[in-house]
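Why does residue order matter? Because the sequence determines the fold. Keep that principle in mind as you read this record.
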Amino acid sequence: MNFQGLNSLNIFMNKFSGNFLPVTNEKKELTVLLKIYLLIVWLTQLTYLATCIFGLFHVPSERVLKDSTINMIVSVEAIILIIYLSNRKSLLRALIGKLNYVLLVEDEVLQKAVISTTRPLEKPLRIYTIASISSVVIWTSLPFFEVFRKSEFYYTDYRVPAGLFEEPFTVGIFISGVFLQIFGSGYTITRKVSLDLYTMHLILLVTAQYKYLRIKFAAIFQQQSSKQQNSNDMIKRKLRLLTYHYGTII
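Structure:
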């Protein structure tokens, strides 16, 4: 068991979203293609955010409160969290290294504790990922139907009010704006979901260690032996091992 092998969805979303947070204790440089992909993701997300901010000042306040507030909060939150975690990659690699070190121990109790902690959330997290991304993409795609109804468009015609060019604008500009919103909002929610999966995975693995320690401590003090001295010596040895295990993670 290791950090990577216990959650394939987390690994996939970490790459697809362009977050590229550490998944091992080794420092690895991104390839040229991945750096280009990362640049495209950031440009798309920041351009989308800029157009949404510009749109705030050109639509009625009701539309701002209804369609822009949550979008802006999620966008800013995702950017702040990405920057925060990216600046602490060395600490994340250190924590992952410690987790991988203790997970290598061939202990059936530890394996059961880890699996029983992580596996029940696998399906709910998949549903959360698919539902979050698909709902946002579908919602921002709805303005496409407006193309069949009129030939001039305004900022309010987008699902999230956005400013691109001076209104009214043509069908071509409107469609370009819709595509920008689809990819911009799609990458924003994808990066946010990926961050949720990543931090959740870390928390679950650390929680599994506490669960393992609780089980082992309970088992030690429940043991009975006819030879009290030998029993005490054995308990001391086991307690030292568990204390070392605890110290490794903490």
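The chain has a mean pLDDT of 84.
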